[in-house]
């Protein structure tokens, strides 16, 4: 309903609605309280609303006379007008949001300036007689490709500075499955990877990923049972047709799946590397056995590759596990940050619950960062683990578990471990 507001020095105000119900509003910085009767006359009981102010929006939780809780929101439409003006002015169109580049969430408010960028160690599909170029540098100038070559002299410097670029070994993916099984060359058609590089793929091929969590199981037999259902889900997905004939043909030939495991680092810290290697090896043999059985039952080919380690991230942390083969950033206790739009109705509730909320550094006008305290089963954080142990864990996963690939980002101490990189 349209309202009028009379501000007072103590930041309280009187609000009168067109239905003549009198309401009172109290504003204290970014918090607001509103009370008004549920009807006119005697016997009226108070409805109480409490919430937070975020820009032109108010939202929070209210209590009716019966004690029931409800969420409420209010948005500023415009200044109060007379009844006559209200009748004439029926246009309640809200102003458009700012245009961002690209026009999507977390876009830039200004068109990014063109930069000179050197992409190192890329795989380039030329669509020309040169074919596919592996381990190739691409130089971008003024928004265009200026040069393509194979000078990798700066790759080590870049990795030591900020971890970029990532490195893929296409020849290994074509020759090997699990490293423990030796050369088989059965995936020789591989031409690239999915964005996080845990799945080697042919052009037009799908990833077909599914994730399991080591630390959520009481025994190896319990984990093997989970692997059965994970395998069945992923294999079933390969039976579904897509809109692309090329994809369907490749999926029918390869039946590639990616049964991933997460919580690897925490499991190794809590149970030891020998136990981890046993679970990986026995787990792989379990998936392989199910693939032999069910492929015959279904009358389809056995999967060319079946296991992987995806980077995971937020998904595994929600399950209380360390992501993929990575240690968690904060160990047993840490703050997990999640970005929310400033218009998100949950944001005022986080503020009312005294969660730490800050404007996002890259877009403070549109985005806020909320800190959530986390208690995990981790014994160490990534800062407590050397670069050598991180690489060794990824290598163990590639040897005993993953016949696709292991997606790993190896962080290191720039002061004490840079020489190990360069």
Description:
With 422 residues, the protein is of the alpha+beta class. The protein has 4 domains: 3-88, no CATH class; 96-167, no CATH class; 188-326 and 380-421, Alpha-Beta Barrel (Anaerobic Ribonucleotide-triphosphate Reductase Large Chain); 333-375, b-12 dependent (class ii) ribonucleotide reductase, chain A, domain 3. It has helices spanning 83-88, 155-162, 170-175, 220-238, 245-254, 264-271, 273-298, 314-318, 346-352, 387-400, 418-421; strands at residues 3-7, 12-17, 22-28, 31-37, 46-54, 57-63, 69-75, 117-125, 132-141, 144-149, 192-193, 200-201, 209-213, 258-262, 307-308, 333-341, 356-359, 367-375. Strands 1-2-3-4-5-6-7 form a 7-stranded antiparallel sheet. It has a 3-stranded antiparallel sheet with strand order 8-9-10, with no helix packed on it. Helix 4 packs parallel to helix 7 and helix 6 crosses helix 7. The longest helix is centred in the last third of the chain and has 26 residues, at 273-298. It is globular. Residues 1-17 have low confidence and may be disordered.
Task: Give the topology.
Layout: E1 3-7, E2 12-17, E3 22-28, E4 31-37, E5 46-54, E6 57-63, E7 69-75, H1 83-88, E8 117-125, E9 132-141, E10 144-149, H2 155-162, H3 170-175, E11 192-193, E12 200-201, E13 209-213, H4 220-238, H5 245-254, E14 258-262, H6 264-271, H7 273-298, E15 307-308, H8 314-318, E16 333-341, H9 346-352, E17 356-359, E18 367-375, H10 387-400, H11 418-421
Parallel strand pairs: 13-14, 14-15
Antiparallel strand pairs: 1-2, 2-3, 3-4, 4-5, 5-6, 6-7, 8-9, 9-10, 11-12, 16-18, 17-18
